[in-house]
Amino acid sequence: MNFMDDKPKILIVDDREENLVSLEIALNVFEVEFVRAYTGMEALQKTLNNEFALAIIDVQMPEMDGYETVELMRQSKHTKYLPVIFVSAIYKEDFHVVKGIESGAVDFISKPIIPEVLSGKVSVFLDLYIQKKELEEVIREREQANRQLNELVNKLEKTQSELKLAKENAELANKIKSLFLANMSHEIRTPMNGIIGMTDILLNTELNEAQREFVDIIQISGNNLLTIINDILDFSKIEAGQVALEKINFDIYKEIKEISRLFSLKIQEKGLRFSTSFDEGIPQILSGDPVRLKQIIINLVNNAIKFTELGEVSLKVEKVKTSDEIIKLLFKVTDTGIGISKEGQKKLFKVFSQTHDSITRKYGGTGLGLAISKRLSELMNGNIGIESEDGKGSTFWFTAELGPEIKIQAHSEDLNTDKGGASSKSLNILLAEDNPINQRVAMFNLRKFGHTVEVAENGKIAVEKFSKSNFDLILMDIQMPVMSGVEAVEKIRKMEKDTAKASPIRIIAMTANALKGDRERFLSYGMNDYISKPFKPGDLERILFA
Ligand code: ADP
Questions:
Q1: d(Cα 103, Cα 143) in Å, to the nearest integer?
Q2: How confident is the model over 21-56, as pLDDT tens digits?
Q3: Ligand 1 proximity of 365 Cβ (cutoff 6 Å)
């Protein structure tokens, strides 16, 4: 509401009506409302329910004169500062002796009234009143703004605490997810240890050419599956920017050949054609992270085969840019399959996205592959994309920056070959492992290297056996029934302390719990080292003497 919507009110007080009338006439130039009072008492009453800009009060009135009236007004909160003009035939000096009227604006006009003089004074007071009202309006607005600001601050604080709660919930959900992943990882890795371990053993037996080929494929597939499990586990780490890529030399032609071999059976089964081609001048040995690079290619080729019923799948490797330090390659996987609509293409590369529900039902898959591939290619300073037409096939491409061959003195050890053979020393090993298949895998490999092995099915038996015989080393599974590996190690370390054993036994934790940070955790439990299942025989032998 505008403060000037109502006219300013002037209280005029006089016991004689003709004086009131002449006051109103003298001031008729002002846009004001006059409120009349015939006595001091009536004037006081009128101030209770009116707000006045000014009061013009006759001094000489019966019962309560003008001075007494103003004195009483000054005692009330809302008339304390009401400007007053006294009208009197008495000398001006008189009103100085009146108590209580010194405060606030007071003026004096003598009778007979000269209309111009009165108007001049009233005009000053009215201006002051308007200024006062304007100021009040500003204050009101400011107070309202403050109130709104406070409301906003309150809302903000509420939102902040809601956000904090949401964040805490999200963190909790994340923890639960990590726990779930850890458990899932264990559940999957345990049987994988059996598969990969047994194929290793099988490859060491007499096999005909075809059988060897099949076992090779089982082994490669097993290893790739393991890589993928690890990558799913790593996915949140990639998201958090905590995954560091390797930089090692690798043979790009050999890796691509391996991928062709991996898919040869599937290609054959589906009656498709598969071809690979390389741009001229791509060096054979490059440096980078071959496992991660292959993971992207495998994912794209796998999808291409999955979504193609007729025709062919091709993998092209092109050179985009070469310098002394960087070799940027473009990988293109083209198929003649079902293709992807423009709408579907928008959803790609997002976590858990699949273009159609019906596709999921028909072809399976997690919808994680492309999201992981995108992040991995970005980690290699590249990017990923698609060109596709519904029903006419697709080309998935990605770029990756690799390096030239790193020239260092070659380490004689070839990590990809397990030559076996007798180790420098044969050890007496206590193997604590509850899973019978894993027992056999580990036993076979350890015996192959000339070690003697005794098995304990759980932590409790391991502690008992440790107390009775002299072992050189313990391989300790972590998750076991009756007593866990961690508990058993605690007991063994305590026994060693109690008997003041000179050299504590070397204990190697063996677990399918391959989450990052596990190593540090196991070492803090009193283990000396850590090997993650499934392991290659060579890795096991190396860690025994590490
Ligand atoms: P998934 O494990 O489900 O295959 P991806 O992230 O690898 O997960 O793929 C996501 C979805 O993208 C697939 O489910 C499919 O709908 C679509 N897609 C991927 N590659 C192709 C392709 N070559 N042809 C047609 N659709 C594809």
A1: 28
A2: 999 999 999 999 999 999 999 999 999 989 999 999
A3: yes
